Structure formats: structure tokens, C-alpha cells
Amino acid sequence: MDPLTVFGALAVSAMLLFYALEQRSPAYVLAFAAACLASSAYGFLQGAWPFGVVELVWSFVALRRWRSRTRLPAP
Questions:
Q1: At 16, phi and psi to the nearest 5?
Q2: Which of 2, 13, 50, 74 has the most CB atoms at less than 10 Å from its CB?
Q3: pLDDT of 4-58, one tens digit each?
């Protein structure tokens, strides 16, 4: 297995793990967003740009979810 394939497998595995743990803490939502960015990088590096674009969009969706979960309630 080449290093790029290992990187991609680790990125997608991290996505799965952090997605499963999202309900426990907003930190896991942020970690999921980072794993999506890593998966996006893998997609672009491998030449599968549609995968890279979709994962980039998922990272922004996850960042918005993280921000909404960490926002202070209005007084």
C-alpha cells in the first residue's frame, strides 16, 4: 500500500469514528470536520476531484454544526 492510500484510509476511518462520537461532545464534531478536510485533501491528491469537492462541502457543514453547538445561549 502506498502512503497516499494509507492517508486516505486513515482519513475516512477518522471520519467514521468521529461521526459516531458526535453526540458526546462538540469537540467530536470539530474533529469530524477536520477528518473531512483530510479526506478532501486525499481526494484532490488522488485525482478524484468530485470526492474532494464533496468532502470539502461536508467539512463546512460540520463546522457550521460545531459552531451552532458551541454558541452561547442568548441572555
A1: -60, -45
A2: 13
A3: 999 999 999 999 999 999 999 999 999 999 999 999 999 999 999 999 999 999 9
Cell of 10: 486513515
Cα separations in angstroms, 57 against 12, 33, 37: 15, 10, 9
Domain residue ranges in the chain: 3-69
Chain centre distance of CA 17: 10
Which residues contact residue 65 at a Cβ distance below 8 angstroms, ignoring those fewer than 6 apart?
Answer: 29
- Cα distances from 34 to residues 4, 25, 45, 71, in angstroms, run 17, 15, 16, 19
Whether the CB-CB separation of 26 and 69 falls below 8 Å is answered with yes
- d(C-alpha 75, C-alpha 73), whole Å: 6
